[in-house]
Specification:
3 domains; Rossmann fold; six-stranded mixed sheet; alpha/beta; 10 strands; about 65% helix; four-stranded antiparallel sheet; single chain; elongated
Length: about 625
């Protein structure tokens, strides 16, 4: 069962995962995909690891033969032979043990390196989805749940699957060598040791399903716990936490959430431990039967003392390899459930790439028309826009005003190509924007949102992100800063435009809210797009800076078109045309003089603001 924006219901996800886990075809497809991913990440490391696994397996089988030789030599010494006969078997056993130890140590370090290499590749894929999917996904809690689950569980799983396969391959190789050695001693022992692993296999799949169900069930609570962690550690939140004395309350909420998690975890661990215990006990019973069989063979004289000693070592080593083998099977089954979740998440990215098609929009336009555009946010009962019509001509400064919640920012997002309308059309010179390639359309628009991002990067990089797909142009960066009135304070910084604009990192410095507002404007001017959308661009500016911004706005945007969004009516008087939005609809439009003459909503709100400004200026409330 799916919800809006392609999100998947958690219950349906668990049901699908349970059904999917029974499909060996699907599991084999995911395993092959993991191997391809690991191979692509670092084939050299993978080849070396496989070689080391085979070398360790050969050394393990060789140790059994060496133990038999050592015990035989010791018995010869007891019979009166020279002690020198023990030397070479001991040297051989020591060398094989050292070889196995060195191979194991190298495997540990190389697996760590390969794991990080694969993790980088997987993070690239996950982040590509997060930055590429339609913006509506970010309105769905289930999208965040899946993203959180993928981050916490699925990113490392491809390497875990490959690691499990490597361990299984090494176990099979070692098991074959040990089995041949054991069969040479007694044919009945090796099959018993292999049978000892079957109880582990039978319980492994149930443990895997328990683990996946637990992860799905805990995702919302984990996200909430992480949020309360962020509130207590975030730099921006630190001031308010102290000002309102929130630390005890936040700490108590965090402890309660973590306590609930530990209760659930305890229950989950006990259930999983019970299944694991059942598997281990079954395996131990069969292994014990194998050892009793060995004792019986010794009593009957079917094997000698040296062979018995070697058999004991071989049985123990082979039992360990069988456990590793079936443990690898369990890891693959368990990871398979998470990999299915990961694959569905990555499908969102493949869908986004598939949807980014169409023709490239023109470099500019003569007239941009919004005709009957309607839009409703996911989960909302009412439309944010209910049939909006506006018109922007090239080179104009058009203002969009209205009370909070009237739909101004929503319309800006639609014009910027961040959302697609539910109804109506956006036309660039009679060409429907729906026919344009979304990513190309977004490159033709520059937007300054009221909640713009203050990047903890250098000033140059903060401006350059306006057109990051092109090489940095120092002259254009400085010109954009000058147009936004930011060049003066940037030049005064310790390293000028190369200063990091955050105290999060060494050598960085902070900017004021108004200075950051100018940086956001400089970023938009640097983009040099035909349509400039400014959403409350003067909210953090003082009156003098605000006046300077609008006095220079036409010169700053040159021959481009600007849509200026504001709730401060005094700043939009000089616009070529003003549109008044109310509850998602355009209720008035015209110049400032025309709208004042109509004496409608615009005139009413303008007078209310003017009276408030006068009252505030006179020292009133």
């Amino acid at each position: 069962m799916t919800t809006d924006a392609g999100q998947v219901d958690p219950l349906a996800l668990r049901v699908a995962a349970r059904g999917g886990s029974k499909s060996l075809g699907r599991l084999s497809r995911l395993v092959r995909a993991c191997i391809v991913l690991v191979w692509a990440s670092s084939r050299r490391l993978l080849v070396v690891l496989v070689a080391l696994q085979l070398l360790a397996a050969a050394a393990l089988a060789g140790q059994v033969v060496a133990v038999r030789a050592v015990l035989g030599a010791i018995l010869e010494v007891q019979d009166g032979s020279a002690a020198a006969v023990v030397l070479w078997p001991v040297v051989g056993l020591t060398a094989l043990s050292a070889l196995a130890a060195v191979a194991a140590a190298l495997q540990t370090q190389l697996q760590r390196l390969l794991g990080e290499t694969v993790a980088r590749s997987m993070w690239s894929k996950v982040l590509a989805v997060a930055t590429g999917v339609d913006l509506r996904h970010f309105e769905s809690p289930e999208f965040y749940n899946r993203l959180s689950r993928v981050q916490a569980n699925a990113v490392a799983r491809p390497f875990q699957v490959t690691q499990g396969l490597l361990a299984m391959g090494a176990s099979v190789a070692a098991g074959v060598g040990l089995g041949v050695t054991l069969v040479a001693i007694s044919p009945v022992l090796a099959p018993l040791v292999v049978v000892a692993g079957l109880p582990l296999l039978l319980t492994a799949r149930h443990e895997s399903r328990l683990e996946f169900d637990f992860a799905v069930r805990q995702t919302p609570a984990l996200r909430l716990r992480n949020y309360f962690t962020m509130l207590q550690t975030g730099r921006d939140e630190a001031k308010e936490v102290r000002a309102f004395g929130l630390a005890p309350w936040l700490g108590e909420r965090f402890q309660r959430l973590y306590g609930d998690y530990l209760v659930d975890l305890r229950r989950h661990v006990l259930r999983r431990a019970a299944w694991s215990l059942a598997g281990q006990l079954g395996s131990a019973v069969v292994l014990g039967t194998t050892l009793l069989t060995l004792v019986l063979l010794i009593q009957r004289g079917d094997i000698g003392v040296a062979e018995a000693g070697a058999a004991i070592v071989a049985v123990r080593l082979l039992a360990t390899q069988v456990q590793v083998l079936f443990g690898g099977v369990q890891a693959i089954f368990e990871s398979g459930l998470f990999l299915e979740d990961l694959d569905q998440f990555l499908t969102l990215g493949r869908t986004a790439v598939g949807e980014d098609r169409g023709v490239d929009p023109p470099d500019g336009f003569g007239v941009l028309r919004v005709e009957g555009v309607r839009f409703r946010y996911l989960g909302s009962e009412r439309e944010a826009l209910g049939g909006v019509d506006i018109e922007l001509h090239a080179g104009e400064v058009v203002a969009l005003v209205g009370e909070n919640g009237s739909g101004k920012t929503t319309l800006a997002k639609l014009l910027a190509g961040l959302y697609t309308p539910d109804g109506g059309r956006i036309l660039w010179d009679d060409r429907d924007a729906a026919d344009f390639r979304p990513s190309a359309l977004r490159r033709r628009v520059t937007v300054v949102f009221q909640d713009f991002v203050a990047y903890a990067l250098t000033a140059t990089e903060n401006i350059r992100v306006g057109r990051i797909d092109q090489p940095a142009d120092a002259g254009r960066i400085r010109a954009a800063a000058a147009a936004a009135g930011a060049d003066g304070f940037l030049d005064s910084l310790p390293d000028g435009f190369d200063t990091v604009l955050s105290r999060l990192f060494a050598g960085g410095t902070d900017l004021s809210g108004g200075q950051w507002q100018r940086m956001a404007l400089a970023r938009s001017f640097y983009r040099a797009a035909p349509l400039v959308v400014l959403d409350e661009p003067s909210a953090a500016l003082d009156p003098r800076a605000e006046h300077a911004l609008f006095a220079n706005l036409r010169e700053a945007i040159s021959d481009r078109t600007a849509l200026f969004i504001s709730h401060r009516f005094s700043t939009v008087r000089g616009a070529d045309r003003i549109y008044v939005l109310h509850e998602g609809e355009v209720v008035e439009h015209g110049t400032h003089a025309e709208l004042m003459g109509v004496d409608g909503r615009y005139a009413e709100l303008f007078r209310l603001q003017s009276q408030l400004d006068v009252t505030d200026g006179a020292g009133g409330p």
